[in-house]
């Protein structure tokens, strides 16, 4: 089973880093979609089947919390696995996100922490995670 | 058989009876990599983060530095039969011994350089035990891949 992912962050660099970390996790990845704010993220969710979404909190147009609320209100996508990747990490904020059934990863994050939470949120097993190795031309070893 | 790796040293083994051991990891880093299918493993004891401070020394002994020792550890493991996407990576050491304001922060810098190398080359660390002010002994059992740490009479698996 391949996992379709949506990465929502207003920083293109951060989206690229999250996508690289996803590849490093060894997950069986399918389509990877990107959006620069919550509103665009919802449009992607409306048109595509997404299994996991990684969402920033502070974004222009529509922030992550509002996007998550709209996802949870919509019966078609209410069960989407969501992980918030943000610099905002107050206890209250994390508790509020947990109530919305969203995981939380603090920026800057290590790929190991992200991997652990993705396994937890998606229910992908360790066996499935040992997918194809990440390949790139820039490797020295 | 026990194979001891000294400071700024590295050993590879494919012999299931071997245990690779390195002592007194303070601010130095111990990096163990292991292919559980072919039972090939290597252990590196790197002292300093970057070879640019003394390129001549790095040429004589690349294992002294993280940025030259780690690629060599991986390449030699590949030559011994290890397969890249099966490697299990464990890291220990990188401690700080003088004070929190340690001017050179060698241990911390060793670990940062290592993380950057792994990020660039697409590797994740399976387990680590770094920082603090303890001196660690690290061993890798080639037959099983078990990585053990010892410090002040205590032993635990990484």
Q: Can you characterise this structure?
A:
The complex is a heterodimer of chains A (141) and B (158). Chain A has one domain (3-107): Response regulator (Rossmann fold), CATH 3.40.50. Helices cover 41% and strands 20% of the residues of chain A. Chain A is built from six helices and five strands, in the order βαβαβαβαβαα. A five-stranded parallel β-sheet of chain A has the order 2-1-3-4-5, sandwiched between helices. Chain A is globular. The termini of chain A are far apart. The model of chain A has no long low-confidence stretch (mean pLDDT 90). Chain B has a single domain, classed as 60s Ribosomal Protein L30, Chain: A, CATH 3.30.1330.200. Chain B has a five-stranded mixed β-sheet with strand order 1-3-8-9-10, with no helix packed on it. Chain B has a five-stranded mixed β-sheet with strand order 2-5-4-6-7. In chain B, β9 (147-151) and β10 form a beta hairpin. The chains are: A alpha/beta (141), B alpha+beta (158). The interface between A and B is medium-sized, with 18 and 15 residues.
Keywords, please?
heterodimer, A: 141 residues, alpha/beta, Rossmann fold, 5-stranded parallel β-sheet, 5 strands, B: 158 residues, alpha+beta, 60s Ribosomal Protein L30, Chain: A, 5-stranded mixed β-sheet, 3 helices, 23% helix
């Amino acid at each position: 089973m391949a996992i379709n992912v949506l990465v929502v962050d207003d920083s293109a660099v951060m989206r690229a880093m999250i996508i690289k970390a996803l590849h490093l996790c060894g997950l069986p990845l399918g389509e990877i979609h990107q959006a620069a704010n919550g509103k665009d993220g919802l449009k992607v969710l409306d048109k595509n089947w997404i299994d996991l979404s990684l969402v920033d909190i502070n974004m222009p147009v529509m922030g992550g919390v509002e996007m998550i609320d709209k996802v949870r209100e919509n019966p078609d996508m209410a069960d989407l696995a969501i992980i918030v990747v943000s610099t905002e990490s107050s206890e209250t904020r994390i508790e509020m996100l947990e109530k919305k059934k969203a995981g939380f990863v603090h920026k800057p994050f290590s790929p190991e922490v992200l991997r652990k939470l993705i396994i937890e949120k998606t229910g992908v097993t360790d066996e499935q995670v040992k997918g194809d190795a990440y390949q790139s031309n820039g490797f020295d070893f | 058989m026990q194979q001891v790796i000294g400071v700024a040293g590295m050993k590879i083994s494919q012999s299931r009876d071997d245990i690779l051991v390195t002592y007194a990891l303070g601010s130095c880093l111990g990096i163990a990599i292991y292919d559980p299918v072919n039972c090939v493993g290597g252990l590196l004891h790197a002292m300093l983060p970057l070879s640019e401070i003394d390129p001549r020394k790095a040429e004589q002994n690349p294992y002294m530095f993280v940025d030259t020792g780690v690629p060599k550890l991986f390449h030699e493991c590949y030559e011994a039969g290890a397969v890249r996407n099966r490697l299990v990576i464990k890291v220990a050491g990188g401690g700080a011994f003088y004070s929190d304001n340690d001017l050179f922060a060698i241990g911390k810098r060793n670990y940062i350089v290592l993380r950057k190398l792994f990020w660039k080359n697409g590797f994740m660390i399976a387990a680590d035990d770094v920082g603090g002010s303890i001196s660690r002994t690290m061993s890798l059992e080639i037959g099983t891949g078990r990585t053990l740490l010892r410090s002040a009479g205590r032993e635990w698996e990484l």
